[in-house]
Structure prediction request, 82 residues.
Amino acid sequence: MKRTRDIEKPYAIFTNQHGWEWRVLKAYKSAKGETKDPYARWFCAVRSPLTHGGYDWGDVYIQDILSSGKLEYASDEYRNRA
Prediction:
């Protein structure tokens, strides 16, 4: 997941009940490396009630996404990453 993907073909999509959506477009570390680093991050396109229908782009701490989001979509690359 080291290559940046297009917003329409993300590696994964997480959502929550408050209208937030995180589209994972790039990972910087392996899944194993992410579990060891509390500051691990993903490059994401994020939509929320505050973005008025658009997306904000940037790095997001993985722990913030996983603590408040639910996995809605996962590509084969996301599911099979090591």
User: Anything to note?
Assistant: Residues 62-68 form the longest helix (7 residues). Residues 31 and 80 are 10 Å apart (CA to CA). The chain has a mean pLDDT of 95. The radius of gyration is 12 Å.
